[in-house]
Amino acid sequence: MKWIYFSKLYATKFQAGCLAKRLEQDGWIYGHNEPEEVEVYRSRKGRYGVRFIP
Question: How far is CA 27 from CA 7, 13, 34, 45, in A?
């Protein structure tokens, strides 16, 4: 399995963490399967992003 990256990067880890939690919790609302793994990562320039394995 390969990681899928969200295109937006955030200035704080908190903002990226909120999106990660939303991915984990809200998948059933939109009819998506829950992702196998969700992770907050730090880019080379110091910003934070979210990636997941479907």
Answer: 18, 21, 6, 30
Structure tokens at 47: 């910003």
Q: What percent of the chain has pLDDT over 90?
A: 54
Q: Where are the domains of the chain?
A: 4-53
pLDDT, tens only, 16-25: 999 999 888 8
Asked if residues 39 and 51 have their Cβ atoms less than 8 Å apart, the reply is: yes
Write down the pTM of the prediction: 0.80
Q: How far is CA 32 from CA 26, 27, 42, 48, in A?
A: 9, 5, 26, 24
